[in-house]
Amino acid sequence: MKGRYDWRGVVKKLRYYIAATVILLAAGVVFALFLRRVLLQNYQTLETSVAHNYAAEVDGDLNAYQALLSLGADGVEARIQEGEDQQQVLAWVQRFHQRLTQIFGDDMLDTYVVYEGQILAANPWPEDTGYDHTAAGWYQQAMAAEGQVIFTDIYTDTVSGRDVITVAKKCWDCDAVMAVDIFPENLAIDLEGLPVLERASVYLCDGSNHLIYARSAVDYSDSDFPDYLNRMLQAIDQGYFDRYDSFVTDIEGARRGVYHATTASGWRVIITVPVDAMLANLRQFYLLFGLIMLAWIAGFVVVVWRNLRLDALVSRTSETVQVLSNSYYGLFRINYAQNTYEMIKGSAYARRRLASTGSYDQFLQVIGDVMEPDTNADFRNSFSLASIRDLVAGNIRDYGGDFLGKYETGDRWINVRVLFDETLAPEEAVLCFREVDQDKRRQLQEHKLLEEALANARKSEKAKQAFFNSMSHDMRTPLNAILGLLDLARQHAEQPDKVREYLDKIGYSGRQLLDLVNDILDMSRMEQGKVVLDNQAFDLAQCIQACTDSFKPQAAREHKAYTVTCQIQEAHVMGDASRITQILNNLLSNAFKFTTEGDSVSVSVRQMGGPPTPQYQIVVQDTGVGMSEEFQTQLFEPYARETRFFSRQVVGTGLGMPIVKSLVTQMSGQIYVESKLGQGTTFTITVPFITADAEEESRQQRQQLPAGAFSLEGKRILLAEDNMLNMEIATEVLTMHSLEVRQAWNGREAVEAFQASEPFEIDAILMDMQMPQMDGCEAARTIRALDRPDAATVPIIAVTANAFAEDIAATTAAGMDAHISKPIDFKALCSTLENLLRTPRAPGKDGQPPHP
Fold it and tell me: pLDDT digit string (tens) for 652-661?
C-alpha cells in the first residue's frame, strides 16, 4: 500500500478508546478476583450444609440399628424378667437374629447377649468359651452408657478375626447386654441418593479415622489413598479447612475443597469438591468478559480501520474464497445475463474437464455427467439461467439441495447451492459445491431408523392388540369351563364319581387361568426390572429331576416318548432353583403343547467345565410341529405366538419364551433355538453357576427338617380375614387338619377376640394385612402391646398377597413371626405352624404353665 500513515494522529484520536480499554480490563480483573472469593465462600457454606445433611442421613440410618437393638434388648429383658433360663433366652435371641437376617440378609451381622456372665450367641463359635467379654471395649462402653445404644469404632474381633462395628445396649433393669456385630462392608448406610456436586467425593470415617464408606471420584484402592485421607483428617483437626481458600491436593494432583461434619455417634462425614468444578461459573464469566473484550477490540479495530485507507487492489477472487473456501470445494461465479461461469475454486474433477471460464451450458454438461439421468434433469431445471434469474429477482439468497455424485473414487453425496448478495456484481450469483456424504448418510440412516422404529411400534401395537384379543379368548375358555362344570356338578350332585371328575377339570382350568395371570405378572415385573434372583445353595440334579418328573404322567397320558438324561459332576451350585424350574417348565410345556401322539420329547443336561464356575447346558428337544423361520425371528418378543400349521388351538399368552429369555439373560446365560416345520424344535440353554459347599447345603437341609413327629390336632387358631370366600376356604382346610378355628372379620375384631380369650388359650394367629377398621400390622402391634403373659409370645403369621422384601420387613417390625403369601400354599402354612408351635412357650407372669 502506497503512502504513509500519520500514526501520531491516529493514536491521539484513539486515546479515549485506549484509556477505556485499560479501565475495562482492570475492572474485569478486580471483579473476577471478587467473584472467585464469593464463589468459594458460597461453596464453603453450601457444601458444609450438605455435609451436615449427610451426617443427619447417617444418623437416620444408624437409628434403624438403634431401634432394632432396642427392640431386641427389650425382648431379652422381658424374657429375663419372666424368669426364663439361658437356653430359653438363647432361643429367643436366635429367633430375633432370624428376623434381622430376613431384613438385612444372611451373613450380614452377628447377634449375641451377655447374660449371667455368659455369651449367648445366635451363631456361636467354638472360640466363645475362652473369650473375656468384660475386657472388650464394646462391653465396657455399653455398661457405662446405662441403657443407651452405643456404636463402637471399627476394630478387629479377637474371636472371628474380622473387622466389625459393634452396636450394644445394656438392659435397663438388669446387667444383661445385647450386642450386634456388623461387618463394615454390610453396614446399611445409603448415601447414594443424596445430592452432591459433580466429581465430588464423599467419605465416612469412624471416631478412630477408619474409612467406613466412600463415594470417591479418585481411586481409593490406590496405595497413596490412606496417606491422602490421613492428611485431610489431620488438617481438619487443626482447623486448616475453616478458611474458604484452603485446599488439599488429591492423589491425582487436583486441588479440592474439603468440608466436613460430625454425626451424633462421633463419626465424620467429609466431602471434597474439585476447585475447578466450584469455579466453573467463574470460567463462564471469563468467557463472557473475553467476549466483551473481543467485541470492544473489534469496535476498536473498526475505528482504526475507518481511519486507514482500504486496500483497493484485493481481487474479487480473494473476496469470494475468503468467505466460502473453508466450507465449499467448488466455487463458480455465474453471470446469468452473459451465460458464462468463472471458476474460483474447483475440485480435481472440475479442473480436468473445465477451463477457468466458459459457457454455462458446458458447465452444466460436465456437472451432469456424474449424475443419474433423472437427477441430472432435475439439476438442469433447478439451476438453469432462468431459474437463477428468478431466484435473484425473488430475493432468495440461499437455494439448493443434495445429489448423489458418481465419481471414479466412489459415490458421494454433494450439496449444491446458489448464493446471492448485493455485494456481488449485478446479474451475478455464486454456485458452490460442498461434500456432505457423512452427514447425508447419517441423515438417511437416521431416517431409516425412524422408519424401522415406527414399523416396530406399529408391529408391537398390533402384537399387543392380537395378544389382548387372544387373552380375551384364552381367559374366557377356562372361565367358561369352570362355570359350565360347576353347573354340571350341581346337576349330578348325587353322583360322586361325576362330581369328582368335574372338580378335577375345574382344578385344571383354574390352574390354567392362574398360569395365564402369572405369565402376565412375571413379564410386567421383568419389563420394569423388578425381578431379583434369589441365589441359594441347591442341588441342580435334584431340581431338574423334580421338574422333569412332573411331566411323566402327561407324557404317558398323551402317548408320547419322554426321556431325560443328566450328566452332572458338580450338582451342588449357587443359584435360583425356582427360576431354573420356571425356565424348564416353560420349555417342556411348549414341547408337550406342540407335539401330538407318537411324538417324542427329550431333556438332556450336561456339565461343561469344572469348578469353581462350571457351565451347564440344558437341551429340550421335541419332534413336534416346529416353527416357521419367520416366527423364529420374533420368538422372544412379548405377545408373539405361532398359530399356523397346527391342528388344534393352543392356550398361552405368548409370554413364556420372553420370560425364559429374560431369566436366562439375567443369569448371564445364553439361549439358542433350532426349528423346522414338521420336524420339531430344539432349545439349547447354557448357564454358568458357582459351585456350592455340599456339606453346608446338606447341613442347611438337615436344619430345615422337623426334629420329630408333631401334631396340630386340637390347636386353637385365631383367623383374621375380611374376604368371605378366603375365610371359608382357610377355615375348611384348617379344620380338615383337626385345628380349631376362631374367626375375626377385621383387625379390630382379631384384637378383641384375643383380649377376650384366656391367657395361652390361642395357640397361633393368622393375620390378613389389608382389612377394614384396622390393618394386620396395626393389629399385630396392638396385640404385642397388650398386658398379658402370652401377648409377646403367641405366634402371629402374616397371610397376604404382598410378598416383597419391604412387606416382609413391615410385618417383622410389627411383631409377626412368619409370612405366607397368597394364594395360600396350605402345605407350607401347616409346616410353618408346626415350626412355630413345636417349641413350648414359657410360663406366664403369674407363674402358671401355658394352656395345654
Answer: 566 778 888 8
